[in-house]
Amino acid sequence: MDEAELNAMTNILSSSEVTSGRKTEQLVLLASFLSVDITARSAAIANSVSLPLLFSCLQSSDQRQVAACCTVLKKLVTNLAANDFLKGELLESGLEHASSEVRQLCVFGARRSLESEASSMELLESNLGKKIVKLIADEDLLCSQAAADFLKEAARQFEPCARLLLGEPGLLKDLSTLLAISSIVRYRLLAMVSELCTASKALLSACHGAGLLKPLLDDLGTDDVLVRLNAVEVLGTFVRSSFTVDYLREQNIFKLFGDIISTADTDPMGQFILPGIFKFFGLLCDGGYIEVCSFHEQYPMFLDSTLSLLEAQAPPLYLQLMDTVALVCRSRGGADLVLNHDRCQAAFASLCSSIRVGPSAARGQALITMRVILSIVVQPDVPLSTDSTVRAEQNWYRPISTRTTHDPATAVWSFAKDPSVDVRCAAFGLLATMVKLPFAVNDIMHLPGFVEYLVDRATETETRAWEAKYVLVKVFTASETVVSSLDAPNLLLLRTYVRQGPLYVRGQLSVKLDDEYE
Questions:
Q1: 60-68 long-range contacts, Cβ below 8 Å, gap at least 24?
Q2: pTM, whole model, 2 decimals?
Q3: Which of 1, 55, 193, 271 makes a 20 to 30 Å CA pair with 373?
């Protein structure tokens, strides 16, 4: 497309006498042209096509024209000068457009202001800042998320932008107004604020000083179960940094959650938010910002209740409880605490029961939990003591076996053939961990036909399972015990499998014959 063709296209788009259909055809043609060698061509076309002209095409009632124009602008936006695209009158019209695609495009274009502190401040100080804040309440989730992401990025990158967003005079009043629109919009805003808090101590202090954390903490005491659930979910973000964990401790959130757990039997409302609290507890232990044993000494009800309810297989909580135990056991301190707990043996008997006879969802999660727990045994940095290793084998590994299969390896291998792909993938993951365990790898080596099963790609038909099985084959082939035990032909087959990758398909030659006799 040369300069003459661009000029002709510009004349068509700018003419009031040309039909909407003809303009749409030109925009579709331009979009197709830009789809090939986009970088080189966009730079040239961006300097030739009038931006106000393209924005005027967005005002058409023809949805095809609007969609085609959006496609063109998406391809041009990164090559347009930031100052051109950030012109207030153009973005303002786009941010209030009836089409969610146009609104998303304009928020995406507003991100060009993040190239410098000055341009970001200029945008937020203008009416555009208020409109982007307002978009957090947009009915389109993608628009809302794009607006929140832009504001978070601006506040994280530039301190003056953070002060403007969270201060008065500034955008704090506009943010606070969103809290009263609906519970959904309130949740979106508080989720954005929590993300900001984990970015730095300064932003945490600014959000607290602006009063944006008080509504979140107040929501934990409301009678609305959904609001309380949302508040617990948002507070899960705070486990991502040490200073936000300290903030939760200062606000007595751990004690509050502990009290809810302790009184759940007599408080029907509290029972509804227990899954969220146990999830929070697991994420807190997995985050690495608390010393798990010290936390347990101060708040024993978290782990005590987790293992007690796991033992009882409490239906509404069971999947979350298994996931929580897995998160706690990701650290050596957490694993030791669970292993030495009075309820450990009974809780893990329940877990193994789910592996043996549970429904698919429970079996898959139980296998994942067992993989995480057994992984702690093979951590090279801090090996378990001999006594702990023996207890791990007796309490965690041996109970997996079923009545018909007297060793755990046979049982787990049978789950790798389960109809559910989730169960199969979880079983492959557990087998890969078992290969690394000195007390389990020999059991696997004695499985008749196991190597033949591994190298047979026809045993799986789904991508997720192919990839999970490939990880198992890779770990199996790298094991010193396996290498020293297998004969050369089988070892060669396994290494060939690893070299070919998870999704390898053997080529087949086919010959087509003429239908002479039909």
A1: 60/20, 60/23, 61/20, 62/20, 62/21, 62/24, 63/99, 64/24, 65/20, 65/23, 65/24, 65/27, 66/99, 66/101, 66/102, 67/101, 68/24, 68/27, 68/28, 68/31
A2: 0.81
A3: 271
